[in-house]
Design a protein that fits this description.
Helix content is about 40%, strand content about 20%. The strands form three sheets. A seven-stranded mixed β-sheet has the order 1-2-4-7-10-3-11. α7 runs parallel beside α9. The chain has two domains: about 180 residues, Rossmann fold (3-Layer(aba) Sandwich); about 120 residues, no CATH class. It is elongated, with a radius of gyration of 27 Å. With about 350 residues, it is an alpha/beta fold. The longest helix has 25 residues. The two termini are about 35 Å apart.
């Protein structure tokens, strides 16, 4: 997950009658979780809506930390979390449940030796899936990238979110066709914009039930703190990396990105290689070109060279700017020189 931190997940136990361990997780914020004022504002808004009984929907570009925000908001509720990921192959049974076999029983009554009585019966075996389990237990459902599932697969959510009733097939365990949703059940959704590949347009009736929070790229301070927390590099070097990524993003050479995920990638690899985000470090420059080089596949063929040249130019400019800032802060010149073997 990319965003303002990570969550520690712990599995739960077995439910009576379940075929497998209950797929719920307990969440705790890790030491690398970054809660800047911007992050706290978004999480607090989401928590207010959840406490009022409304489902929350985080919508925004890839790499903006929507999933991490959703898990953080779920963790603040203090209840077990049911995690689902949207899938184009999903049908309603993948959310609600389905039959998975039969049980056959046979009774032979030979109490009177001259009379043999035989009775046979067959019953359908039913397995609840994640939506049903969450509704029964009062979990917080986190449905990540729910628009990757087809609209008809998510129809079961309509009555769950509005009437607080989950409709089940006639073959299910509830012969009356529905179950009442636990009063503590809440739902958090995330999605990417509709123009993304593999994203389906969801039904208006479902969107009308959600409170949508638009999640865009974080401010510079938040991105620097996240990059530093997720890589362990010094704050000044994290700032150089974030400025490179934000500079390319601001130019708009592609419709999307690069995101905070690119900053974390560059920072982690740079730290692992023993390199530094500063002017003259050839390893750092190569890492930047490789991580950000994926932008060239998102533009028309004739413009690939221009994009690569732009990446090289911004990397050089920002590393030089970082060197000047360090000098202005009174750091010794030796601390900014390229290390041996990494270029002059």
């Amino acid at each position: 997950m990319t965003g303002q931190g990570e969550q520690t997940m712990t599995g739960q136990g077995l439910d009576q009658g379940d075929r497998a361990p209950a797929p719920t997780i307990s969440l705790e914020a890790s030491e690398t979780f970054v809660a800047t004022p911007q992050v706290r504002r978004i999480a607090d808004r989401a928590l207010v809506y959840l406490r009022a009984g409304y489902p929350v929907h985080f919508c925004g570009p890839a790499g903006t930390g929507k999933t991490t925000l959703a898990l953080h908001a779920a963790a603040l509720r203090g209840r077990s979390v049911m995690l689902m990921h949207g899938d184009d192959e999903y049908g309603s049974s993948d959310l609600v449940g389905s039959d998975y076999g039969y049980r056959k029983s046979k009774l032979i009554d030979n109490y009177i030796h001259s009379v043999l009585k035989t009775e046979e019966s067959m019953s359908t075996l039913w397995a609840d899936n994640r939506l049903t389990l969450a509704c029964k237990r009062g979990n917080t459902l986190v449905y990540d990238e729910f628009t990757r599932s087809r609209a008809e697969a998510n129809n079961a959510l309509l009555s769950v979110l509005e009437e607080r009733l989950l409709t089940l097939p006639r073959t299910g365990p509830q012969r009356d066709g529905y179950i009442e949703v636990h009063p503590e059940f809440r739902a958090i959704f995330t999605s990417n914009p509709e123009e993304y590949a593999g994203v389906h347009r969801t039904q208006d009736a479902l969107m009308d039930r959600l409170i949508t929070i638009k999640v865009d790229y974080f401010d510079r301070d938040t991105e620097v703190q996240i990059t530093r927390a997720r890589s362990g590099i010094p704050a000044e070097e994290a700032g150089v990396i974030v400025d490179i990524v934000r500079g390319i993003r601001k130019l708009g050479v592609t419709k999307q990105g690069p995101s905070l995920r690119a900053s974390i990638m560059i920072a982690r690899v740079t730290a692992q290689q023993g390199a530094h985000a500063r002017h003259g470090d050839l390893v750092f420059a190569e890492v930047c070109r490789d991580v950000l080089g994926g932008l060239t596949v998102k533009v028309v063929r004739g413009e690939e060279k221009d994009v690569q040249a732009t990446v090289n130019e911004i990397v050089a400019r920002q590393t030089k700017a970082g060197r000047r800032r360090a000098r202005g802060n009174g750091q010794p010149v030796g601390a900014l020189a390229a290390p041996a073997g990494k270029g002059a």
